Structures are given as structure tokens and as C-alpha cells.
Amino acid sequence: MMLRITIAIVMLAGLANASVGYQAIDTTNFANRAAAYEGQLVSVAGQVCAVNADGKSIRLFDKDSRALIDVSLNHLQRSQRRDLMMTGVRQVVVYGKAEVKDGKLTIDAHKVSWSPVKSA
To answer: Are 112 and 95 in contact (CB under 8 A)?
Structure first.
């Protein structure tokens, strides 16, 4: 009986995690609509234009909207942050939670994906 309950709980937890999705946001209104995105799970693609010296945050630039987007990398593992910094990545997709910090919308990254830079 206990085994059946455990299996049911595990299956329900898996379904709950599968239904959580990241919403691609419109970067043209990103800064103007901070309240609309706060607390939501979002995904943003952009070019890395700045890396904080401690390696715990980056700034993305979206060329279409000319928006600068701050991204906190605190929830990533240290090895993931190091890989991001050391591989010379230029273009990334960030998945995380949108938050307002000091009046500015930032993304608290849960996951960052990128393609390795091809050497010439």
C-alpha cells in the first residue's frame, strides 16, 4: 500500500514539473512592462555584452529592441557559470524567473543554454 502511494506522489510531481513552462518575452517592452513579467517564468535570447567580475551575473543585449537585460546566475552551479565564462560564449538563451531589483527588471536564471563558439 505504501509503495502505491509513493509511486502516485512521484507521478504527480513529475506531471506538475512537466506543466511548468517558460514564456518567451517580448524584449521591446521588457523595461516598460516590468510589473507584468514579475514572478513569471520567462525565456530570453540575447547576446552577452557584459560579465560581472565575480561571475555571478551577466548582461544581455537584444539587438532588435536595443534592450539591456540583467541576468543573475546565482542559482546555477559554479561549474556551469565557469563554463559559460570560459568558453567565450556570445549568444545565449536564459530561462528563469523575472524579478524587480532596485526598480529594474532582472532574470534570476534557472538554466542557460548556448552553442559553443566555432574557432576559425
So the answer is: yes
